[in-house]
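Need LysR family transcriptional regulator's 3D structure for a figure. Predict it.
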Amino acid sequence: MADVHARLAELGLQIPPVVPPVAAYVPAVQTGNYVYVSGQVPLADGKLLAEGLVGADVTAEQAKEAARQCGINALAAVEGLVGLGRVVRVVKIVGFVASAPGFTGQPGVVNGASELFGEVFGEAGKHARSAVGVAALPLNAPVEVEAIFEIA
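Structure prediction for LysR family transcriptional regulator:
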């Protein structure tokens, strides 16, 4: 795989500092050849990109952008723990979407993170995935994404 940092630069993406935990957990844990990234909410510069329920307070497109930011924050957690250069592939992501009653577009929202990983890692960014609608998320975030990465 080409240098991931060069690819990020091509995409115009900068990896932010690791988002500090908001409760009793760590941003990421390595076990063997895997890094498990805790659920990331769409914080950028210390502020949520959007708040509320998707399909009521937040549009699906806004939520998709928020999911992309969750993915960027997941990359930051990996970079902070082991370095993105060690990533072999994205194994799985789980996206949680705070959904208004009747909203069924969770897969499209979580595509924000899935597409980011594809852009950054190419074929190695293709992953297994779940997209789940929930009643509420921490900090009133519209979306949260957790991820598993295989590393060398």
